[in-house]
Write a structure and sequence with these properties.
The structure holds three protein chains of three kinds. Chain B is mainly α. Chain B has helices at about 15-30, 45-60, 60-80, 85-100, 105-135, 135-165, 180-205; strands spanning about 35, 45. Chain B has a single domain, classed as Arp2/3 complex 21 kDa subunit ARPC3 (Orthogonal Bundle). Helices cover about 75% and strands about 5% of the residues of chain B. Chain B is globular, with a radius of gyration of 17 Å. Chain C folds into two domains: about 15-250, P-loop containing nucleotide triphosphate hydrolases (Rossmann fold), CATH 3.40.50; about 310-560, P-loop containing nucleotide triphosphate hydrolases (Rossmann fold). Classes of the chains: A mainly alpha, B mainly alpha, C alpha/beta. Chains in contact: A-B, A-C, B-C.
Chain lengths: ~260, ~210, ~600
């Protein structure tokens, strides 16, 4: 099981160069827009826009496949289950006992699946083109208090470390005779207590050391903190944000006032 | 001399460190110990155990942060990034409630805490998935993976809290910065409102 | 005049500690008892002491974290750079006193080196331009300029600690405190860190306080050595003065450079009018060359007492080997071969040491012995059976593995529960388990700690707990991965004595270690790995008498062996393994 701890792909495209705040806001608004709208065609257009962004970000075909593969089972299940539970509307395409499949509900099912895909790709477009450090800095600049940003940044740094530690602990306990692969589902799951306990204790121990380390470097000093790498919005960034916000507002207004894309 | 390590906004060096490692441990455990399950969110995992344990061990605030952020990051790294905001909210509440009711208390309260967290998780995902996936899929997931996850999560976290407190007594000396009742109630109410709003929006706007 | 002089002296003091007594909030017992210490500006002082002596606690009092953050009961005063640590905020004090901790992993928490080094000054509100200059300077001091953007995962242990030093330096402290900086590092890593420390010593006005176990390095750098035990200072003086007190050092449980032991032994044996005192290899060489005659050939008895050969049973070559690997290759990922064709046979009852730099493949190799890793190609047999057919848990009946980090195994609420875990997994009956637990605890000397939670014990004792838990499983073969790293000399000896007892009882022992003195004292056979291949394999004496081959992988035999080798023209045997052996071959002129 090879663990991908960072979705970021290093490139130098226009999308990559955008300020992370632009991308964060863009992805968030894109996801909200997908939720607000229900019409198949409108959703499809948003989907197309997101795909263009991803293409501009030079996301590899492989990564694209990974993204679609994870969403595919969900999408299929949605399309299959939707008509089974929402049975109103005409024309009826197929009827057998309690199962009534109507065209409108089938289309809605497809819309719902498409919506998930749009949301997924909004998220991917953000994550494939922005390194973790920039994401955190962007969030802090958007208002997340520094302490929480630090906690998040440190957590991201330690996730692969804990990945390694968990594997080592599993090895260490296996070497004491713990069979993690044998036994009923119930027994197997409960055996993981013997892995989780050392993990948590190790984590608590690390936290003690970490807290001494950050305090020894003046964390929490009552002065205004400076930042060596600072985020600055360029003209391009401001224009991009403006475009996204305007488009989003327009869409939402159209939806609420005129039922556009319902 | 009292230890005043709370720093600003209740996040002093100990809080930053504890939340960071628990976020990382939760994310890593959620990702590594998971069994692929072809339905909705794709995998049965022991993350809920970590979420509830964080609450029981470290209190409401850190439990909510570790549970919510850790699970959200796991979602992202496993390819379900679009769910991350919802997971952040729902699992965060799960950890928060477990900690609010169960932190630093005896077994009956801990049990109540994890049950509250479990209900939050089930209701939360149900209400978010209904508009997104359709009620069929939402019911399917709730009654299969999610129920299993919170049940095992609750059992394991109750075992672990006892184990960890006795095996690593040093953690008992950590006292989280006090959470005012106003804030606690406020958080629960806000989350409930958000979820109700989502469900309401879809019910009134019509589905299908 | 006297008042003026006294004033001047105080001004030149970097650190002044008076009557310091401190107890942690969780316990009644003070960890520091009436400490009095003066350190002048620019001085380099080393602090030694067994585990639990209070060294780390003392370090934390220097930047105010004790008592301001960790609270507890404190008496007396600590003044650094003229500031009383009770009167100034921690952030002010950390600006003057930088601390580097033992664990590289938990003090490097940023995404890359540059961010890490900038963290401190950023917190202090230093301007970004100034910070950039400081980062450049600090990287230069620790010689890591090309690693600016490197993430911590891609740094070796030695590199990580150097970054930690740079991260402390960027705050421009006048006092640098290093708490066991090389404890977990391999020989190359230790070398890297000590050479940076050497440069720090030459920096003007930088006062350095270093807590360390490596007595040879301490002898090289320190202006003054302070020895602590049970919260008190028991010895203080120049390295020469302190190391001459070998008896006190041994009572406290610390090691001194072997040449110092030699000097003491020589003085006792030869009743020399002017007692010798050797601090470095060079001094010992010069003195012996000028004052002693050709070496006496050593008798079997002399050689025997220093190694385990007298306890060795005869090992039959035709017997089924405990572990055997044939043409073993292993790659973690495509193209990166870690083991490149290893052939090795270890017989039952042998006591083997495996040495080599980090990355040479030592741990990778031994993990094949109990199935944690499976070969990419080649064969592994344990007790004659192919290891490929068994799971790790099955193999654990025959091969026990002591992991370097005991915290990766410890989870129980009591020592006896922890030790019983292994046997329970193997399905041993409760009565038998109880017997095994009792025997194991007796072997490692932890009977009185039965009911204590293991995680509250010190590192050395936690190692003993995991050793006991493996012993209770009664595996024929025991693999020990760096059993003595990070613990004091006394703890190491106790642990290795338990291991020797196990060998006496018939267990096959395979030890991975960096500690050459341990190898010399406890292993009859040594295997040297470099770049995934075996470059030397034979009796320890033989292996250590080939220093030129060892040097190709940056290893060196123990100090006393190097001394004997340098003095070979005088007739000293090149495979001397202990101070006693060397002394018995000395002949007065």
């Amino acid at each position: 099981m090879s663990m991908k701890y960072d979705l970021y792909i290093e490139r130098n495209t226009a999308i990559h160069r955008l300020d992370p705040r632009v991308k964060l806001i863009g992805a968030a608004l894109g996801m909200i827009a997908a939720v607000v709208v229900s019409d198949l065609l409108v959703l499809a257009s948003i989907y197309a826009i997101v795909l263009v962004v991803i293409k501009l970000g030079q996301v590899t075909w492989e990564r694209f496949k990974f993204a679609t593969r994870t969403i595919l089972p969900v999408s299929i299940m949605i399309v299959c289950l939707w008509p089974l539970f929402y049975r109103t509307g005409t024309p009826v395409l197929f009827s057998w006992g309690p199962i009534i499949i109507t065209l409108p509900s089938l289309l809605t099912g497809i819309s719902a699946a498409l919506r998930i895909n749009v949301m997924a790709f909004c998220a991917f477009s953000l994550l494939y083109t922005t390194p973790q450090g920039s994401l955190v800095r962007g969030l802090v600049k958007l208002g997340l208090p520094y302490e929480y940003g630090l906690s998040l940044a440190i957590a991201l740094r330690y996730i692969p470390t804990f990945g390694g530690i968990i594997l080592m602990i599993m090895d260490a306990q296996k070497a004491r005779g713990l069979e993690l692969d044998k036994g009923s589902f119930l027994r197997k799951t409960l055996k993981y207590v013997y892995v989780m306990a050392p993990v948590v204790i190790t984590a608590l121990r690390m936290a003690d050391q970490l807290s001494l380390a950050i305090e020894s470097r003046a964390f929490g000093a009552p002065v205004k903190r400076t930042y060596v790498t600072d985020l600055r919005m360029r003209v391009v960034d401001t224009i991009a944000i403006a475009v996204v916000v305007v488009a989003f507002t327009g869409l939402v207004l159209a939806r609420l006032l005129y039922g556009f894309g319902a | 001399m009292t230890a005043q390590t709370y720093g600003r906004k209740g996040m002093g060096p100990r809080e930053v460190s504890l939340s960071a490692v628990m976020i990382a441990a939760t994310a890593a455990l959620t990702m590594l110990i998971s069994v692929p399950f072809p339905l909705t969110r794709g995998y049965f995992n022991l993350g809920d155990a970590m979420v509830m344990l964080s609450g029981l061990l470290l209190g409401a605030r850190l439990g909510g942060i570790a549970g919510g952020v850790g699970s959200a990051i796991a979602d992202v790294l496993l390819g379900f990034g679009y769910f991350a905001p919802m997971t952040l909210l729902i699992k965060g509440t799960e950890g928060f409630l477990a900690g609010l009711i169960g932190h630093n208390r005896k077994f009956p309260f801990r049990l109540a805490g994890v049950i509250a967290g479990a209900i939050a998780m089930l209701l939360g995902y149900f209400s978010v998935e209904t508009p997104l996936y359709g009620i069929g899929a939402a019911i399917a997931e709730m009654t299969t993976i999610n129920v299993l996850q919170v049940t095992f999560g609750a059992i394991i976290s109750l075992i672990l809290i006892e184990l960890v407190l006795r095996a690593y007594p040093a953690i008992k000396s950590y006292v989280p910065p006090p959470l005012s009742t106003k804030v606690a109630v406020g958080v629960v109410v806000v989350v409930a409102i958000i979820l109700a709003a989502i469900v309401g929006f879809y019910l009134t706007q019509g589905i299908g | 005049m006297a008042a003026e002089k006294a004033l001047k002296q105080t001004e030149e003091l970097a650190i002044e500690i008076r009557g310091l007594t401190y107890a942690y909030p969780t316990s009644e017992q003070p960890v520091l008892k009436d400490i009095n210490l003066k350190v002048c500006k620019g001085e380099f002082i080393s602090i030694m002491g067994p585990t639990g002596a209070g060294k780390s606690t003392l370090c934390l009092t220097l930047n105010g974290i004790i008592p301001q953050s960790l609270s507890g009961k404190i008496e007396g005063s600590v003044v650094v750079d003229g500031m009383n640590t009770l009167s100034y905020g921690v952030h002010v004090l950390t600006n003057k006193v930088g601390i580097i901790f033992q664990e590289p992993e938990s003090q490097l928490f940023s995404m890359n080196v540059e961010e890490e080094i900038s963290f401190g000054p950023e917190n202090l509100g230093v301007s970004p331009d100034e910070i950039r200059k400081r980062v450049d300077w600090a990287l230069g001091v620790v010689r890591m300029e090309q690693y600016r953007q490197r993430s911590p995962f891609r740094l070796s242990g030695g590199q990580k600690q150097r970054v930690a030093i740079a991260a402390a330096l960027s705050m421009m402290p006048s006092i640098l405190v290093l708490d066991e900086p090389t404890s977990g590092l391999d020989p190359i890593g230790k070398m890297e860190v000590f050479s940076v420390v050497h440069d720090l010593k030459r920096m003007r006005n930088m006062t350095v306080v270093m807590v360390e176990h490596e007595s040879e390095e301490i002898a090289r750098f320190s202006d003054k050595v302070v020895v602590m035990n049970e919260g008190k200072i028991v010895l203080e003086g120049t390295p020469r003065e302190v190391f001459a007190q070998t008896q006190t050092m041994m009572d406290v449980g610390l090691s001194v450079p072997q040449v110092c032991e030699l000097a003491e032994m020589v003085n006792r044996k030869f009743q020399s009018k002017k007692p010798y005192s050797f601090l470095t290899l060079q001094e010992a060489k010069d003195a012996i060359r000028s004052d002693f005659a050709e070496a006496r050939p050593t008798s079997r008895k002399d050689r025997g007492t220093s190694s385990v050969s007298e306890q060795r049973r005869t090992v039959r070559d035709d017997a089924v080997p405990a572990v055997e690997v044939g043409d073993l290759h292993f790659e973690y990922e495509k193209g990166i071969e870690v083991l490149r064709g290893i052939d090795l046979r270890i017989q039952k009852g042998e006591c083997v040491a495996i040495i080599g730099q980090n990355g040479s493949g030592k741990t990778t190799l031994v993990k094949h012995f109990n199935g944690l890793l499976r070969p990419t190609s080649g064969k592994v047999t344990v007790n004659g059976d192919d290891a490929a057919d068994k799971t790790v848990a099955e193999l654990s009946r025959t091969v026990g593995y002591l992991f370097q980090n005991p915290d990766h195994q410890i989870f129980s609420t009591s020592v006896e529960e922890e030790v019983a875990f292994g046997p329970k997994n193997l399905g041993i009956s409760p009565e038998d388990t109880e017997t095994r637990v009792a025997n194991a605890l007796r072997l490692v000397g932890l009977e009185s700690y039965r009911k204590v939670p293991p995680s509250t014990l010190g590192l050395g004792q936690r190692r003993k707990v995991t050793l006991a838990s493996i012993v209770a499983m009664r595996p024929e073969v025991m693999i020990l991965d760096e059993p003595t790293t990070g613990i004091d000399w006394n703890g190491s000896i106790q642990l290795m004595n338990s291991v020797r007892e196990l060998n006496r009882q018939g267990h096959t022992i395979i030890t991975i270690t960096h500690n050459m003195r341990v190898v010399a004292q406890y292993a009859e056979r040594t295997v040297v790995l470099a770049d995934g291949q075996v470059i030397l394999d034979g009796p320890t004496r033989e292996v250590f008498s080939k220093p030129d081959i060892l040097r190709t992988t940056f290893l060196a035999p123990p100090q006393i062996t190097s001394l004997a080798q340098d003095l070979q023209p005088m007739g000293f045997a090149p495979d001397i393994l202990s101070v006693e052996e060397f002394c018995s071959s000395l002949e007065v002129r």
